[in-house]
Amino acid sequence: MFSNINGKGKSDKTPAVGAQDVEIYAGNTLLVDSSVLNLGDNIKILTVESMDTNIASVCGSFVIGNNVGKAQILIKAASDSDIYDIVMNVSVIPGKLTVEPDTRSISVGETTRYKAMVSNGVYKSISYQSTNLNVAAVRQEGIYGYVTGIAEGNADILITANIGNTISEFKIPLKVVEASKPAEIPIFNPVNGSGYTDDDEWKGSRVFFGRYEQDNNIKNGKEPILWRVLEVNDDTIFLLSEYGLVCRFYNDTYESVTWETSTIRRWLNSTFLESAFLKPEIDAICDTVIKTKDNKRYGSCGGNKTVDKVFLLTSDDVNNTAYGFQKGSKRKSKTRTCRITEYALVEGYRNKDNNNTCWWLRSPGITNYYAAYVLSSGKVTYGYFVGRRNDAVRPAIKLKRSAVIFGEEISDGKYTAPLVIAKEF
Question: In this model, does residue 4 exceed pLDDT 80?
Answer without folding.
Answer: no
